[in-house]
Design brief:
Helices cover about 40% and strands about 20% of the residues. The strands form three sheets. It has a seven-stranded parallel beta sheet, sandwiched between helices. A three-stranded mixed beta sheet has the order 7-9-11.
């Protein structure tokens, strides 16, 4: 298939691009810069210059593709509501272009939900609806097009998609630990994060493209929930700094924007995804990556 991938040069997107190319698919990757375009060209992908703020360009690339994998998102935490509105507009424009074509549209999402007291499952619908909700309500927007001749699939990624050269949430926690001279967790550290290695996440995306039915929700989760105090302890040991508890009321001052996420209990099952796609994670665990030095360079 000829697949249009937004975020193709990002952390998850670069792994997805490699996975697709290695299995015979052609990739057209959205590139905001000359550097991103050159990186895609070097892989054997085709660069499509544009951004999430140019819906017409996104629509043109979607129209020319056999499938779309939308992984990009404007991670602007100074204007998160605005980022959500941009996401909604971009997704809506691509979906309208694909309407009636029966082509796949895979959309990156997260595991945040209103579920309490048990792991989130693929049967749990996102509680976010509308342009002013989390990520512009894009997951429910996309899935609604299953009745309009599109094959939408929600890709729910664990909060830590880890591996060598990761620059995401775990890398940010490592940076803060280095700056503070201590690896912190919030309160008693009992809140948990699901985790997945980026190679496993990329393989799940490719299998979802090839196998998942319209309306499917897929969980890129290898470890269902790692306690935040254990994550902090592993980072502290790697950096040679102590592990400390940070009072909830001090979390914003200590962690900055990532504190709101590190304090969430984000636990999820991927049992249905594994069965549906015949997907079994085989990559290193988060703690194995930390011990191997995946985050040493972020100090």
């Amino acid at each position: 298939m000829r697949v249009f991938v937004t975020g193709a040069s990002g952390w998850i997107g670069s792994a997805v691009t490699d996975e697709l190319l290695s299995h015979g698919h052609k990739v057209v990757g959205l590139a905001r810069s000359d550097e991103a375009a050159a990186a895609l060209d070097a892989k054997g992908a085709v660069a499509h210059r544009g951004s999430l703020d140019d819906p017409d360009s996104l629509a043109a690339a979607a129209e020319a593709a056999d499938a779309v994998i939308h992984l990009a998102f404007k991670h602007d935490f100074a204007d998160y509501a605005g980022a959500g509105r941009s996401e909604h507009t971009a997704v809506l424009r691509m979906l309208d272009t694909l309407e009636g074509s029966d082509r796949p549209f895979l959309l990156a999402s997260g595991l945040a939900s209103g579920v309490v007291g048990r792991p989130l499952t693929e049967d749990d619908a996102s509680p976010f609806h509308g342009v002013d909700s989390m990520r512009g309500g894009s997951e429910n927007l996309a899935l609604s097009y299953a009745e309009r001749g599109v094959r939408p699939v929600a890709l729910r990624f664990a909060p830590t998609v880890h591996g060598m050269r990761d620059h995401g949430f775990t890398a940010q926690l490592t940076k803060i630990a280095g700056e503070r001279g201590a690896a912190g967790y919030i309160g008693d550290g009992s809140t948990r994060w699901a985790a997945v290695h980026h190679s496993d996440a990329a393989r799940m995306v490719r299998l979802g493209l090839e196998k998942a039915p319209a309306g499917a929700r897929l969980h890129a989760v290898a470890e269902s929930g790692l306690p935040s105090r254990e994550i902090a302890a592993a980072l502290g040991e790697q950096l040679g700094v102590p592990t400390v508890s940070v009072a909830p009321e001090d979390a914003d001052a200590h962690f900055g924007w990532i504190g709101r996420f590190f304090g969430m209990d984000i636990v999820a099952s991927s049992a249905h995804t594994r069965e549906l796609l015949d997907w079994t994670p085989t990559g290193p665990t988060l703690f194995e990556d930390i011990a191997a030095g995946a985050y040493a360079l972020t100090q």
